[in-house]
């Protein structure tokens, strides 16, 4: 446990000095799950540096300077704190008002810099060196540095490990008693993998600190029934929490030794006897900051802030909320809330109900993250009503700090959780959400309900960037990440009920065993709409079918290798034999790898007759869930089938692309922005040049202003050309032909010119139509590939077929780069007009791999060059022989809001 002197900052948002790169600041999670603040050094940090250096051991100083160096001279301090933030940069890590580590690079030559670190001994082993290296490398890349070098003493094994385990290809040489380390700092698949694995472990630990406390204090506890402080204290006590529980009554100044609801009470948390791991805060909003400082002084590891009065009330509340989070993180604490319902952990030995809900669900295998406090209570009630066991639950309220991303990192390695549920009102960092959820979905089902999809609305308390993408983009991101998207809370629990108890289907063929013709028809209709297939004829039994009748039918379908899933519908006759039917169904399904869903006596849970009891008295795997009607049962089965298909996908990877020159593209963008500091659309020549760095060729188009000029250009090209009007107002006009094809000679061109200038009404001023002459491309199907830099999602790649109908119907696919081979293949195939690419009505199939190759190249370009805010291959003609890019549009502009998911780890 680390303790720090606590001081109250003078203001909420101190102004940085001139020239200070605030974008390099980051809150970070250390290896042990605690938080810290990382930022560039400033001249004002001189005293902080001297105090830090005084705490560093002589051995660590020797490792840094290769000689005894007991103190820093005034000249040293000035040199170390005064940097230009480009060729010389130093980043420091602070906790509270103490500096605990520093890393720096200094340019030594063209695109090369020497890097060095110094970590306070008490904080070595917490991953500071790795974090500093990640952030220094990112800053160096932005400043044109491509390579790091370092000198390390042979016995400084910790520093050697920092370099060798970073995921870069490190070269080492031994010279004059020193190890010379050298490596390129361009991100690689290996370095990304290392970073993401470290990120998952540290963020999971930070959540574990919240969910598994050994002691909890309720700050704002009250004796008055009906108050929030009283409810929180009661729920913790009555939920069976086995650890130490304390009540802190800040209003009435409880005398030490007194009790509230049988719990020891104290006037402040500083006076609590013993350690406190988790503080649940229920005081007035303007008191929360003082409480955070008291918690920091006490060494509290995490906070649940139930108090309201923050971002949901307006500007003053948003300011207060930013201050709360920054203050807590600066002292190593994570925050759930504010305006939160709280958290629950049903694990044996924890039994933690730190929420406003008196309902404590039974122990189970389903975890739940919810952003809405108001919806949290009915959600818990629904879970209890269905008998759906819970592993852990977090309702994050304004979600100022802890988010669904953090919880998914925790549940990835949580053995108690087998199914994850998400109720999302907003996505604070969609790129990280996509990356983290995809990794989790590869291991466990993740079922997600996103509200506000139609309006992109965001609750007032959640400070997120507002996306301008259509709802289809979010749905595509869910599919890309393997999430099971649902539309209602009822569907959320239906799918969870199935996946928590039954195996995943091995295919789409479903058998039906039923004693109701009417309900069988409902099941068949739902199967048809969901894309499931009927395995043979439904086994329709009579209304008074006996248990043995059911047993015979069930034995047949479970023995049939062509059956992948089973739907059982049982409605009771006048003389119900439900118990006997349940025994037969349970016996037939036992040990089968085929999932079974039922409509059993209209139950909406796992009926006791169909339960396989677990060690805690709940429903174990193999229990058969029941749904209110067959539509719900089949709908849940369809979602599980789609997820199973995603899990079974063939190997999907990010392909290696030849003819890629990332450095050339970066240099071009930098040079373009020097010419156009505010950004601009690229002309034809610049578009050709930029795309060439990524192996994309464009068929040249030549502007012409007269018939004579058009004839001359066509002759230069050897005719077999087209004349095209490219002005935006004429493109894709259904009543006008904007392209004249098959121009073989001068007469054809003059006829085309006369007809088109007349059609568009621009005979007197052809420049208004912006005519171009272009060589004929092989006939094919026109498609469009685009990217846009969204302020929330970052780069998004879209695909569709050209035409007005496609635009009006929004028939496009969306993916977030980087694209895997499977992502690109699915993008092409999921648009409704895709049959036109595969030989529709006898036409020749087109070159699908050529489309996928273009998608990968556009994805790579927009991922590498975030200043390319818009890129359209707005006319690509695809034939059996390949793809020809005919027309493009590109815009480059300064990146005012950097992407949120960066190569270096940070809390956002």
The amount of helix comes to: 25-40%
The top level CATH class name of the largest domain: Alpha Beta
Q: Give the overall pLDDT as a whole number.
A: 90
Number of separate strands: 37
Question: What would you note in describing this structure?
Answer:
Keywords: Transferase. This is GNAT family N-acetyltransferase. The protein is of the alpha/beta class and 908 residues long. Helices cover 33% and strands 22% of the residues. It contains 25 helices and 37 strands. It has an eight-stranded mixed beta sheet with strand order 1-2-3-4-5-6-8-7, sandwiched between helices. It has a seven-stranded mixed beta sheet with strand order 11-12-10-9-13-14-15, with helices on both faces. It starts with 25 loop residues before the first strand and ends in a 16-residue tail after the last strand. About 1% of the residues have low confidence.
Short description:
The protein is an alpha/beta fold.
Write the layout of secondary structure elements.
Elements: E1 26-29, E2 35-40, H1 46-55, H2 58-65, H3 74-81, E3 88-95, E4 98-109, E5 112-119, H4 128-142, E6 147-152, H5 157-164, E7 171-175, E8 178-184, H6 189-211, E9 215-219, H7 228-238, E10 244-248, E11 259-260, E12 263-266, E13 278-281, H8 288-298, E14 302-305, H9 315-330, E15 334-336, E16 342-345, E17 352-355, E18 363-370, H10 373-386, E19 390-395, H11 404-412, E20 419-424, H12 430-441, E21 446-450, H13 471-480, E22 484-486, H14 489-499, E23 509-514, H15 517-530, E24 533-534, E25 539-540, H16 547-559, E26 565-570, H17 578-589, E27 596-600, H18 630-647, H19 662-675, E28 680-681, H20 684-692, E29 701-703, H21 707-716, E30 721-725, E31 739-743, H22 746-760, E32 771-775, E33 781-790, E34 794-801, H23 804-809, E35 813-815, H24 821-830, H25 848-864, E36 868-879, E37 882-892
Parallel strand pairs: 5-6, 9-10, 9-13, 10-12, 13-14, 14-15, 18-19, 18-20, 20-21, 21-22, 23-24, 23-25, 23-26, 26-27
Antiparallel strand pairs: 1-2, 2-3, 3-4, 4-5, 6-8, 7-8, 11-12, 16-17, 16-19, 28-37, 29-32, 30-31, 30-32, 33-34, 33-36, 34-35, 36-37
Helix pairs in contact: 6-11, 8-9, 11-12, 14-18, 15-18, 16-17, 21-22, 24-25
Keywords: Transferase
Protein name: GNAT family N-acetyltransferase
InterPro entries: Acyl_CoA_acyltransferase, ATP_grasp_subdomain_1, CoA-bd, GNAT_dom, NAD(P)-bd_dom_sf, Succ_CoA_lig_flav_dom, Succinyl-CoA_synth-like
């Amino acid at each position: 446990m680390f303790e720090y002197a606590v001081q109250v900052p003078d203001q909420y948002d101190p102004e940085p000095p001139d020239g200070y790169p605030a974008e390099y600041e980051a809150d970070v999670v250390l290896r042990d799950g605690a938080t810290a603040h990382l930022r560039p050094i400033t001249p004002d940090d001189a005293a902080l540096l001297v105090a830090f250096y005084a705490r560093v051991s002589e051995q660590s100083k020797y490792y840094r300077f290769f000689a005894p160096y007991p103190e820093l001279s005034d000249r040293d301090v000035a040199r170390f704190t005064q940097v230009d933030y480009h060729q010389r940069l130093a980043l420091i890590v602070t906790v509270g008002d103490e500096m605990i580590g520093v890393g720096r690079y200094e340019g030594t030559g063209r695109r090369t810099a020497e890097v060095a670190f110094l970590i306070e001994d008490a904080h070595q082993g917490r991953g500071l060196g790795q974090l500093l290296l990640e952030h220094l490398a990112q800053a160096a890349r932005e400043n044109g540095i491509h390579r790091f070098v370092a000198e390390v003493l042979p016995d400084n094994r910790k520093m050697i490990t920092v370099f060798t385990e970073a995921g870069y290809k490190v070269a080492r040489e031994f010279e004059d008693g020193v190890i010379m380390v050298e490596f390129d700092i361009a991100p690689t698949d290996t370095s990304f993998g290392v970073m993401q694995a470290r990120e998952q472990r540290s963020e999971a630990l930070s959540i574990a600190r919240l969910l598994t406390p050994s002691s909890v204090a309720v700050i704002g506890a009250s004796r008055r029934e009906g108050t929030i402080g009283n409810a929180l204290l009661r729920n913790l006590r009555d939920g069976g929490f086995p650890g130490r529980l304390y009540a802190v009554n800040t209003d009435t100044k409880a005398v030490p030794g007194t009790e509230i609801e049988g719990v020891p009470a104290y006037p402040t948390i500083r006076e609590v006897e013993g350690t406190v791991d988790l503080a649940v805060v229920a005081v007035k909003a303007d008191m929360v900051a003082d409480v955070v400082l008291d918690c920091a002084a006490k060494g509290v590891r995490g906070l649940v802030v139930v108090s309201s009065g923050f971002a949901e009330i307006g500007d003053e509340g948003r300011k207060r909320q930013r201050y709360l989070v920054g203050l807590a993180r600066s002292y190593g604490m994570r925050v759930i809330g504010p305006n939160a319902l709280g958290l629950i952990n049903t694990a044996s030995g924890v039994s933690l109900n730190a929420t406003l809900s008196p309902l404590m669900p039974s122990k189970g295998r389903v975890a739940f993250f919810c952003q809405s406090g108001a919806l949290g209570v009915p959600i818990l009630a629904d879970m209890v009503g269905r008998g759906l066991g819970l592993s852990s639950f977090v309702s994050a309220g304004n979600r100022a700090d802890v988010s669904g991303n953090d919880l998914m990192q925790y549940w990835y390695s949580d053995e108690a959780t087998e199914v994850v549920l998400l109720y999302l009102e907003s996505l604070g960092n969609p790129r990280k959400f996509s990356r983290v959820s995809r990794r989790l979905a590869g291991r466990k089902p993740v079922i997600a309900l996103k509200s506000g999809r139609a309006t992109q609305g965001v609750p007032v308390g959640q400070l997120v960037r507002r996306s301008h993408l259509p709802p289809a983009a979010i749905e595509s991101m869910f599919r890309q990440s393997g999430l099971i998207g649902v539309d209602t809370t009822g569907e959320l629990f239906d799918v969870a009920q199935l996946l928590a108890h039954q195996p995943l289907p091995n295919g789409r063929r479903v058998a039906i065993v039923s004693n109701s013709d009417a309900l069988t028809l409902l099941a068949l209709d739902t199967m048809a709409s969901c894309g499931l297939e009927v395995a043979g004829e439904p086994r329709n039994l009579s209304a008074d079918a006996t248990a043995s009748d059911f047993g015979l039918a069930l034995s047949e379908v479970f023995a049939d290798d062509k059956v992948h899933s089973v739907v059982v519908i049982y409605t009771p006759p006048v003389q119900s034999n439900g118990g006997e039917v349940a025994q037969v169904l349970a016996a037939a399904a036992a040990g089968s790898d085929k999932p079974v869903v039922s409509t059993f006596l209209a139950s909406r849970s796992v009926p006791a007759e169909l339960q396989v009891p677990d060690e805690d008295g709940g429903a174990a795997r193999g229990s058969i869930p029941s749904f209110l009607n067959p539509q719900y049962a089949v709908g849940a089965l369809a979602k599980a089938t789609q997820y199973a298909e995603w899990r079974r996908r063939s190997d999907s990877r990010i392909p290696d692309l030849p003819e890629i020159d990332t450095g050339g593209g970066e240099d071009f963008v930098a040079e373009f922005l020097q010419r156009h500091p505010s950004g601009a659309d690229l002309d034809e020549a610049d578009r050709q040049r930029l795309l060439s760095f990524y192996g994309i060729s464009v068929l040249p188009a030549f502007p012409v202003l007269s018939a004579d000029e058009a004839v001359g250009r066509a002759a230069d090209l050897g005719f077999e050309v087209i004349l095209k009007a490219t002005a935006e107002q004429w493109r894709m006009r259904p009543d006008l032909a904007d392209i004249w094809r098959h121009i073989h000679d001068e007469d054809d061109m003059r006829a085309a010119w006369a007809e088109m200038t007349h059609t568009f009404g621009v005979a007197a001023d052809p420049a208004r139509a912006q005519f171009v002459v272009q060589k004929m491309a092989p006939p094919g199907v026109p498609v469009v590939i685009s990217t846009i830099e969204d302020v929330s999602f970052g780069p998004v790649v879209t695909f569709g077929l050209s035409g007005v109908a496609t635009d009006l119907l929004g028939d496009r696919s969306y993916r977030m780069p980087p694209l895997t081979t499977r992502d690109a293949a699915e993008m092409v195939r999921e648009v409704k007009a895709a049959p036109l690419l595969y030989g529709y009505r006898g036409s020749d199939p087109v070159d699908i791999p050529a489309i996928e190759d273009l998608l990968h190249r556009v994805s790579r370009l927009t991922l590498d060059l975030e200043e390319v805010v818009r890129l359209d291959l707005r006319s690509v003609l695809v034939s059996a022989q390949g793809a020809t890019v005919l027309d493009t549009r590109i815009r480059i502009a300064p990146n005012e809001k950097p992407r949120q998911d960066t190569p270096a780890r940070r809390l956002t």
